Amino acid sequence: MMPQRSHLVGFGSYLPKKIVTNDDLAHYVDTSHEWIYERTGIVQRHISDEQETAVYMGTQAALKALEFAGEKAEEVDAIFVATSTPDQIFPSTAARIQAELSIKHGFAMDITAACSGFVYALATANAFILSGQIKNALVIGTEVYSRLLDWSDRRTCVLFGDGAGAVLVKAKNKEGGILSSHLHSDGSIGDILYVDGALGIKDASGYIRMNGREVFRHAVMRLSEVVDEALKSNGMTKESVNWLVPHQANLRIIKAMGKKLGLMDSQVIVTVDRHANTSAASIPLALDEAIRGGRIKKDDTILLEALGGGLTWGAILAIY
Ligand code: COA
Questions:
Q1: Is the pTM of this model over 0.85?
Q2: Is 277 a known active-site residue?
Q3: 126 in active site
Q4: Coiled-coil annotation: which residues (predicted)?
Q5: Which of 115, 185, 250 to mutate to test the pocket of ligand 1 (most atoms within 8 A of CB)?
Q6: Which domains does the chain have, with CATH numbers?
């Protein structure tokens, strides 16, 4: 009998109501639409209000993913939430979302891998499904990066946005689904992108700090390696990839990866122009848009990749 595989069966997302354009930001810091757009491809971002918490947005995205799949919340075995911006240190965002969905069985946990968080969380869900411990999982990325930003630091505050995305994965005795996942980290270069401090740490700002040039350099290098690794481990060539669904940090990094894979621009899902970098939420937001928009179709091969603070990076190859 065909072994169980994790299939992506439901997709949902949530974006805060408030939109902040590059021109709006130029009122706060010494920047311009041209500078931001030329270097990053970003035009605008969504910013949460007080009600649009990580739990609220994650729950909304999860409900839409369940609706898409025609599944009920009480059927969900596990919830994995990727976030670097939890509303509380604990209970986890995942446990809070579990409660919002009135689920009382199974388990829920948060995974922190900064912008690689969704890839890490989906890889974890896949491992639990392949081991036979669960039959399905909600995998959610939900982020309120506006809380982590120093709004007087033009080098970082223009790059990020808030939002959430969710995917329901389900075990099926059927070919396709997640083919493989590839996770990496290198803590020795953690200081090129980090949050300065945590609760109770003296003299810490609690804000994101970044060496943009170094992050850019590592992103292109590491993502190229991991994409090759994903293809090689499946005995596939780049021609078999129909869609690149990358983490949305910077259009120049995204385009470099599309070019490496020999893809046309139309085969690369881009949301960074409208969402900016929503960290762990960016891939499920992009997936939801591309699937509901009818671009990614059944049996298409999709490649997810991301790099973030840690450094962490990874890729997942899947058939929808
Ligand atoms: N508006 C206007 N000027 C800005 C600016 C802004 N928002 N941010 C920085 N600058 C200035 C800098 O102060 C610097 O001026 P100086 O030379 O007078 O000091 C100049 O622009 C160049 O800065 P630099 O940081 O070298 O720019 P860059 O070409 O590397 O672009 C990034 C900066 C952040 C856009 C780019 O490095 C990048 O995209 N890196 C990857 C970041 C990323 O994706 N992080 C998340 C990963 S998950």
A1: yes
A2: yes
A3: no
A4: none
A5: 250
A6: 5-174 (3.40.47.10), 178-319 (3.40.47.10)
